[in-house]
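Tokens as discussed.
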């Protein structure tokens, strides 16, 4: 399920024609790194890894939809941020990566 969610995020980004090519490539690269990091986390925290992937998927959807809803995007990004908060010490790279993805998604609509 985790791999399918991440693959879905990648497919969603690849199929989005309204994204700037540079931002699209940046996000695809970040999602590729996320795939590795949540894979490591899933070895010991499967449910948490799924939550992170799911909140990321929702955030990508909200940031890239045609009629962006700032409130929904804000809530999904907050969920994404909260889903990694408890891993700041044990998985700092994952937390930093999720924060970078969040910032990048927020900047898409600016």
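Sequence:
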């Amino acid at each position: 399920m985790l791999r399918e969610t991440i693959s879905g995020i990648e497919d969603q980004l690849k199929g989005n024609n309204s994204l700037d090519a540079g931002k699209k490539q940046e996000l695809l690269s970040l999602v590729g790194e996320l795939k590795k990091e949540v894979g490591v986390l899933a070895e010991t925290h499967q449910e948490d890894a799924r939550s992170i992937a799911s909140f990321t998927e929702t955030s990508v959807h909200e940031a890239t939809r045609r009629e962006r809803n700032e409130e929904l995007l804000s809530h999904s990004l907050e969920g994404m941020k909260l889903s990694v908060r408890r891993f700041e010490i044990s998985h700092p790279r994952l937390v930093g990566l999720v924060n970078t993805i969040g910032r990048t998604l927020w900047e898409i609509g600016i």
